[in-house]
């Protein structure tokens, strides 16, 4: 596995944030706000932030637009990942994946289980995958779950993931 240079470890990653919700707006979106706040604090750049309804066409439209944006390196989605009838984020985004990052969902559920959620963690369908040279994370809508994912998984590994997905450009 390649070592990241100090410069690569400090470089801001360009992140797009999507909140999937039928009830939230930018004033009431705690989870999207948590992603933005934590990413900025870690030195990353939020290049776009949107909210859309729990509709596959709306989710796809946003994801496809960001996939076509050369500046976007990571997409973080919150909401629509449960088992309810309107929870369609996972079904909508996984067909785009070039590769699934299985360990993300596995570790997220393990951490959720051990950090207070208990057996309810089995209901989480949080996932991640690469789409060509970008990474997409799909998180629950809970701000506590978002904080856990950002703090323990996404922020510690984001530079490494982006490096692995883009190193072919440098070779």
From TrEMBL:
Keywords: Molybdenum cofactor biosynthesis. Residues 16-161 form the MoaB/Mog domain. Signal peptide: none annotated. InterPro entries: MoaB, MoaB/Mog-like_dom_sf, MoaB/Mog_dom. One of its GO terms (cellular component) is cytosol. GO terms for biological process: Mo-molybdopterin cofactor biosynthetic process. Belongs to the MoaB/Mog family. This is Molybdenum cofactor biosynthesis protein B. The lineage of its organism: Bacteria, Bacillati, Bacillota, Bacilli, Bacillales.
